[in-house]
User: Fold this.
Amino acid sequence: MIYQLFWEEAERQGALKGYAHFGNGFGADTGLSVDLPVSLVNFIEVFQLENAIYDVWYDTLNMGFRMTSTAGTDYPCLPTVPGRERFYTQVAGPLTYESWLEGVRKGRTFVTNGPMLDFHINGKGIGDEVLLKKPGTALLEGRVRFDLNRDDVDRVDVIVNGVTVKNFPKGSDPGEITFQFPYEFTSTSWVALKALGGKTDEATWRHPPYPPPSQPASQAYTAAIYVTIQGAPPLSAQPAAKLLARKWLGKLDSFEASLAEDQIQKLAVPQLSNDGMDSETMQRNRVALLKAIEDAKRYFAQMAR
Assistant:
């Protein structure tokens, strides 16, 4: 199967592997349904061209996959400017290409189009794991900083397992929102921080014929910090994961149906296309792909029990 071979070769070379366009554009979530069970994906791009879409990323985290969030502009293919949507990575020790790869691999990132985020739980940073011996409180601390000439952040949201549990509005400190509070964890969880507001310097940043956005948004979002309660069910065994596993089984069923002999031709693209597979390649990979789908279905079926 050509895509799995690609991921495996990337793994052998020590590269990062992931999905652009929010993990759901162009059928990417279908590929993820096959790739997630075999741990072949490191990241999902959740922020691009002023759009921030988190549903597929939330699904992966809520099913227990530790997935890094990234961002990108897709410049010059889309009407934007280089680096408007981007992500930052914390590295350990000297900044090298290898240390940067390792930082992304460990989920030490935040995506942004301007605001800068700091976030800690019991002193542990983004991408880290906090271990609790039993259900109880942990100290959450965060900060967003922003240039008032570019961004006007209105609030910071604290997200636990995809749900906003607390938010902090802009206060009297210019260009900064900070918070600190104890939070009661009753189950193993993932936690992230999101900043939202408006842009103050982007009335005409797009070039003709594309109109400027009517209300350009200032946004930033951290990757997760994981809070594990010893002896408690992991995220993959919680009720939310079981429901999501059934949903992803549905994705696999649809994918399998599309590979039927009388349907597969609809998936093919012209041989010289730079995106997708031509008919001959699709047919050569069909048997291996069907096997990979069956393997993935067994994985999600076990999770759904």
